[in-house]
Amino acid sequence: MRALQCFLPFTPKVVAGVCVRGASTVMLMLTQPTIVLLLLALLALQATAEPQVVSTALCADQMVVALVDSEHILALSPQARDNRLSAVVEQAKALPSLPPAAEALVFANADVVVGMTGSETQTLILMEQLGVRVLRLEAPNHFTAIARLIRIFSTTLGASARGEGLAVALAKRWAAAKAMRTAAPRPPLAAYYRPDGGSAGHGTFVDVVLGAAGFENLATALGYHGWGRLDLETLTMNPPEGIVAAFFHPQHRDTLSRSLLHRFSHHPIFRTLWRHVPVLEVPGSMITCASPVLTDVVEYLARKRSSLRVYQP
């Protein structure tokens, strides 16, 4: 919110002054008793108006777009327009983007700068030293943590009602997905993969998504924790009933890239499995961050779950 600056020199009976906000100038001729009411009104206006916000990180972009009206978003991060990673590409097209550099953020003149814990640390510290309010969002790894983050973030921005509405709506959708899960006779075994062989075990939001959609995560079943790789030997010895694949872009669906990044997914063992079991492809942009968008992923996977069958190599 741009500050409303008023210059009101007192005289015995009348106050003649000027108020300036941005490019607008208002001449005032007021009696002294009125000036008290004016100042109180100005203070109330500045206290209740929504702040102007800048986001500096990809995952912060998603929370800002979900909880802040576009007219109060001064800028998103440059990654917000990357359709391989960002779930808010369409919204970002209508908004400026700024590099997470102190100079750019200072000139943006934001009331609040939103980043992620552990990201752009020095820049965010500098902004705090300059008197700008900085919000650092934690990376949640469970739906309850996402809902808690939504409530905290929205309250901080003065949009608690909006945040509460979003949190409640998401909770209802998660409950519906859970009901679909309990109706299944058993959870099918699924392996989550990125093109480089990366997977996700216990303690990751991907593991929570698979469980919420009614799957048993192969990596978790084998005792894996956190983010890591699920090697081909393990995959061969423990064939899943399906693959949940992320970041496999359209040009890689059939031929699979021979680049170093995709060397794992080009291996004959993986390609054989890819051809013989259902592959549920999730756009990388939808599973990059632990955000409200994960609810869409859960619902999609829950609908596709019935198509899985056991592969016998």
From TrEMBL:
UniProt-listed Gene3D superfamilies: Nitrogenase molybdenum iron protein domain
Coiled-coil blocks: none
Residue ranges annotated for the Fe/B12 periplasmic-binding domain, each copy included: 53-243
Pfam families to which the protein is assigned, alphabetical: Peripla_BP_2
Name the record gives this protein: Vitamin B12 ABC transporter, B12-binding component BtuF
Organism: invertebrate metagenome
